[in-house]
Design a protein that fits this description.
The radius of gyration is 21 Å and the shape is globular. The chain is 55% helix and 15% strand. It has a 4-stranded mixed sheet, covered by helices on one side. The protein is built from 11 helices and 10 strands. It folds into 3 domains: 79 residues, Acyl-CoA dehydrogenase/oxidase, N-terminal domain (Butyryl-Coa Dehydrogenase, subunit A, domain 1, Orthogonal Bundle); 82 residues, Beta Barrel (Butyryl-CoA Dehydrogenase, subunit A, domain 2); 165 residues, Butyryl-CoA Dehydrogenase, subunit A, domain 3 (Up-down Bundle), CATH 1.20.140.10. The protein starts with a helix and ends with a helix. By secondary structure, the protein is of the alpha+beta class.
Length: 353
């Protein structure tokens, strides 16, 4: 992280430490909107991190935004901050204005006719808690970023494994509030890749916190006269967990840095994102398993923080495509290089950029 990233990350972390407590998260899962948390986020400008000043934002860097996303994941923040950042980024790509109100991105079978949006999207994060829905609509090879008011849409409320809203939205010729053509050859594949990277960065933050909780608990829990963290078998498991955390953080950070350097999600950025997304499931599966093995039943108690993190991890790992889908895509890409180009491409990826 740069000094700017650290400042943004520290600011976000302090807000989440104070206002994204287990009690607040449990209340949010029960349907209570965490007003104090969102107000603090809005007042700090964190929700506009990815939006240039000319579009109504604070003009921070892409890496600043990824730092906020990692902090939100580390705290299991029960608000659509990440979704609002994603929506703001998409609107800004089309040169549209961003208000900073709660927003989310819908991906589905959508169409535009005479300035009206039709179609449906499933599993839209936090839709019921947002003021705006943003989407990329592709028609006859032409992409348009559109924004509609959530209140004009039909919502069927659903939740994911973490208890977060993941609603189904139906657009019945909904009036478009804003519409613009994105630059940098942005398309549906790019938006899907950006969503996948966002979930990888969130998960990296959540796994880091889960590891901290696991180490702390292993040193506090006493069994047979000594802390369980002193037993060699448990030390090996926690060390393996630490390896998974390091791997997903490295993969997610590498992809984020490439995206931050490029004007768009180009082909090389896509490869980095595919690598991170392919690595995500293994990190989540192995890391969460160790965390709960160490904590035992304690990790699933209502008041404990661990399950807030692991249930989100289990939900996020499959969003924007499972590891199987991304591994197949990545494998097809690597095969297209040919045998002679395989090693040079792998070793030259960083330098080539």
């Amino acid at each position: 992280m740069t000094d700017s990233d650290n400042i943004i990350f520290d600011t976000a972390s302090r807000i989440f430490a104070d206002l994204s407590t287990p009690e607040v998260i449990n209340e949010a899962e029960a349907g209570t909107w965490p007003e104090a948390l969102w107000q603090a986020i809005s007042e700090s400008g964190l929700n506009l991190t990815w939006v240039p000043e000319e579009n109504g934002g604070i003009g921070a860097s892409m890496l600043d935004g990824f730092a906020v996303i990692k902090a939100a994941g580390a705290a299991a923040a029960p608000v659509p901050l990440v979704e609002t950042l994603f929506a703001g980024w998409l609107l800004a790509q089309a040169g549209l204005q961003v208000s900073g109100e709660t927003a989310t991105v819908a991906i589905g079978e959508l169409s535009l006719t005479d300035g009206k949006l039709s179609g449906s999207a499933m599993g839209v994060p936090y839709a019921r808690n947002t003021k705006q829905i943003v989407a990329l609509v592709e028609t006859a090879g032409k992409a348009q970023v559109v924004q509609v008011a959530t209140e004009q849409c039909e919502l069927r409320e659903q939740t994911n494994l973490a208890g977060e809203p993941a609603d189904t939205i139906t657009f019945n010729a909904v009036n478009v509030a804003q519409m613009g053509e994105p630059g940098n050859d942005l398309n549906g594949e790019s938006v899907d890749a950006m969503g996948a990277l966002i979930r990888c960065v969130q998960a990296a933050g959540a796994l880091s916190t889960a590891l901290e909780l696991t180490i702390e608990y292993s040193m506090e829990r006493v069994q047979f006269g000594r802390a369980i963290g002193k037993f060699q078998a448990l030390q090996h498991s926690i060390a393996a967990f630490a390896g998974e955390v390091a791997a997903i953080n490295a993969a997610a950070d590498a992809a984020a840095e490439v995206v931050a350097r490029a004007p768009s999600i180009d082909h090389e950025a896509w490869i980095e994102i595919a690598t991170a997304k392919t690595r995500l499931e293994e990190a989540v599966n192995n890391g969460a398993a160790v965390a709960h093995q160490v904590h035992g039943a304690m990790g699933f108690t209502y008041e404990h923080r661990l399950h807030h993190l692991t249930r989100r991890l289990w939900s996020w790992r499959d969003e924007f495509g499972s590891d199987v889908i991304w591994a197949r895509r990545l494998g097809e890409e690597v095969l297209s290089w040919g045998a002679d180009e395989l090693w040079p491409r792998i070793t030259a990826v960083t330098d080539a950029r």
